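Dear H.,

Thanks for agreeing to be a second pair of eyes. The structure we're designing against is below in token form, covering all 210 positions.
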């Protein structure tokens, strides 16, 4: 069974581990701490790159209207798609739709190619999230509207970022994931925030965890 690239960032005696889709992740903090600002590993959510002139029509069969360039569109079940280029789209599961994208990578049609992506996604949420990110980024992230896709450098790492509800979501290459997560976690804890497991995160977005 595959493991999250961030698994080493979670102390083995402090979390319960299990599966998010087909990936082993930290699920729950064994001794949850009340904090409004949090950091979570969402790397168990499957992602696919959809490429080709026929991508918008194919996405329509999946319940999506193709978003504008550098924007994100959401389905009612939590799946989402972001437009990265003229004919390039990133399709992802959401926390309420784990395992619901069952595409086989390959050529779906003459003008549609699907590639599995191993990008790592983390969520930094709560009232202190913007202050934590501002320590590592000179851009005023508060100026970006919800669901705008923002390629940028954070802590000298190339990432993409989008905002949804009261959280910022950061996506990076697996090779950069531990560095990104570690610097965010250190700043977060210094500000009184907590690192949570994936099941903890699901409870937070449902409003069930203090």
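And this is the sequence the design step returned. I haven't edited it by hand at all.
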């Amino acid at each position: 069974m595959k493991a999250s690239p961030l698994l080493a960032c979670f102390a083995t005696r402090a979390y319960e581990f299990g599966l998010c889709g087909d990936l082993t992740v930290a699920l729950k903090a064994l001794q949850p701490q009340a904090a409004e600002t949090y950091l979570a590993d969402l790397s168990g959510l499957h992602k696919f790159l959809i490429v080709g002139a026929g991508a918008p029509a194919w996405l329509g069969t999946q319940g999506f209207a193709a978003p504008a360039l550098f924007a994100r569109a959401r389905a009612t079940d939590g799946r989402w798609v972001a437009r990265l280029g003229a004919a390039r789209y990133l399709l992802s599961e959401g926390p309420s739709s784990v395992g619901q994208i069952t595409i086989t990578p390959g050529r779906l049609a003459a003008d549609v190619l699907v590639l599995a992506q191993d990008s790592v996604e983390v969520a930094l949420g709560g009232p202190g999230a913007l202050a934590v990110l501002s320590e590592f980024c000179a851009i005023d992230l508060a100026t970006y509207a919800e669901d705008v896709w923002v390629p940028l450098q954070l802590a000298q790492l190339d990432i993409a970022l989008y905002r949804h509800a009261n959280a910022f979501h950061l996506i990076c290459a697996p090779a950069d994931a531990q560095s990104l997560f570690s610097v965010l976690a250190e700043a977060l804890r210094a500000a009184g925030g907590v690192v949570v497991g994936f099941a903890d995160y699901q409870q937070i977005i449902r409003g069930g965890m203090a």
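Two observations from my side: The chain has a mean pLDDT of 93. The first strand starts at residue 2 and ends at 3.

Warmly,
E.
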